[in-house]
From TrEMBL:
Residues 16-128 form the FAD/NAD(P)-binding domain. Keywords: Oxidoreductase. GO terms for molecular function: oxidoreductase activity. It is an enzyme of class 1 (oxidoreductase). This is FAD/NAD(P)-binding oxidoreductase. Its EC number is 1.-.-.-. Gene3D superfamilies: FAD/NAD(P)-binding domain (3.50.50.60). It comes from Pseudomonas piscis. SUPFAM superfamilies: FAD/NAD(P)-binding domain. InterPro entries: FAD/NAD-bd_sf (IPR036188), FAD/NAD-binding_dom (IPR023753), Sulphide_quinone_reductase (IPR015904). The keyword Cytoplasm does not apply.
Length: 425
């Protein structure tokens, strides 16, 4: 049972729209709101001073991008007219249309948008925090470690290269194997595959959740002679000894523990909603922000919306999903404020550019239920096959689309679908 907090004390400030989180989702939805109504009173709450283009870290780990190119000062990205509150949220008081900041100030709102991202739970793997960044242990899921991935890939001459994937849900479900394919591609080009033995240790039961893309991926698994171990969850790392401990789940549900030596270990940590979300009245039983999957409005609090990685929608947790969700939430918040009349509808779109080799990508695009949702006709770009055009999209088009489009309120290829009337959304 969640704790019941007393009614908040006197309000210290109020805004028409409060946005919790200044990541991709938060800045994009703020920009989309103001592009529709420049006179809105909008504030973003986020203590961070740096904003990261996290989809670029896969290419940092492959020596294609520099780490520095994936970061910007947060102040430079705040949409004009948005008030930035450099604070953390302590708790929510939705019954009073208010929240409490870490410094105990109370802010009221007419509409609340919740998009704080998710928590990378490094400490859930015993010994991992102490091992990261040395002993051959790395992760493209952290800005400071992605360059170390590329160092290890270049330096490794022989031995065991392990790539782990935790139980779902995680941010960008394809990223664990993206790191593996790009590493293997480099070793193949250098003539080291054979001396280096790659192994994919996946806690899940399939290579990728949308079956249409698996055949192309399996061709690369064969090409790189990757050993696939499903049902293997990383639970401990001994950095100095270079040994990783996994719990293996067998077909009958029983479990066994096993250790594997490594010369390189690329780790993806388990992930969950941030603590202040999981402990709040906004959370579902699993700790995620509890929203309707189509309107993205909270199921219990009509003036709260959620988007991005912290919600309980079943879409892939990617920047591409947030890009599609931001216009939907912006539209629907304005409906709630009586500024618009037609609700918008999110179909679960997500995208995962699977970097299978340097210069080629399998571009997975899909909606709820794993339904394929290609952005381009097959004659131009067939996402089910590895193509150079998809690589150009990832390397040269998506970064400026992110910085100059999504975060500026330009909704290129992301215009929301509107219901014929409010009852249909």
């Amino acid at each position: 049972m969640r704790p019941i907090h007393p009614a908040p004390r006197a309000v210290d400030g109020s805004h028409q729209v409060l946005i919790v989180g200044g990541g991709a989702a938060g800045i994009a939805v703020a920009a989309s709101l103001l592009s529709r109504d420049p006179h809105l009173d909008v504030a973003i709450i986020d203590p961070a001073d740096t904003h990261y283009y996290q989809p670029g870290w896969t290419l940092v780990g492959a020596g294609v991008f520099s780490a520095e190119s994936t970061r910007r000062d947060m102040a430079s990205l705040m949409p004009k007219g948005v008030k930035w509150l450099r604070q953390a949220v302590s708790r929510f008081e939705p019954e009073h249309n208010a929240l409490v900041l870490a410094d105990e100030r109370v802010l009221a709102y007419d509409q609340l948008i919740v998009c704080p991202g998710l928590k990378l739970d490094w400490a859930a793997i015993d010994g991992l925090p102490q091992a990261l960044g040395k002993h051959g242990v790395t992760s493209n899921y952290r800005y400071d470690l992605a360059p170390y991935t590329w160092e290890l890939v270049q330096q490794l001459q022989e031995g065991q290269a392990l790539f782990s994937q935790p139980p779902m849900p995680i941010k960008c479900a394809g990223a664990p194997q993206k790191a593996m394919y790009l590493s293997c591609d480099h070793w193949l080009r250098q003539g080291r595959l054979g001396a280096i033995k790659p192994r994919f240790m996946n806690a899940g039961g399939v290579l990728f959740g949308v079956a249409d893309y698996v055949p192309a991926l399996m061709e690369y698994v064969k090409k790189y002679a990757i050993d696939l171990d499903f049902g293997h969850n990383l639970v401990a790392v001994d950095g100095p000894a270079q040994r990783a401990t996994f719990v293996r789940t067998l077909a009958d549900g029983t479990q066994q523990t096993l250790e594997r030596p490594f010369d390189m270990l690329h780790v993806v940590p388990p992930q969950c909603a941030p603590d202040f979300i999981r402990q709040s009245p906004l959370a579902d039983a699993a700790g995620w922000v509890d929203v309707d999957p189509h309107s993205l409005r909270h199921k219990r609090f009509a003036n709260i919306h959620g988007l991005g990685d912290a919600t309980n929608t079943s879409n892939a947790k990617t920047a591409a999903a947030a890009r599609k969700q931001a216009p939907v939430v912006a539209n629907n918040v304005l409906v709630a404020l009586k500024r618009l009349t037609r609700l918008a509808h999110y179909d679960g779109y997500g995208s995962c550019p699977l970097t299978v080799e340097r210069g080629k990508i399998v571009l997975a695009e899909f909606t709820y239920g794993g339904k394929l949702a290609p952005s381009f006709p097959a004659w131009l770009l067939d996402g089910r096959q590895p193509t150079r055009r998809a690589w150009w999209l990832k390397e040269m088009i998506l970064p400026p689309l992110y910085w100059r489009g999504m975060l500026k309120g330009h909704e290129w290829l992301a215009h929301p679908t509107l219901a014929t009337d409010t009852a249909q959304a």
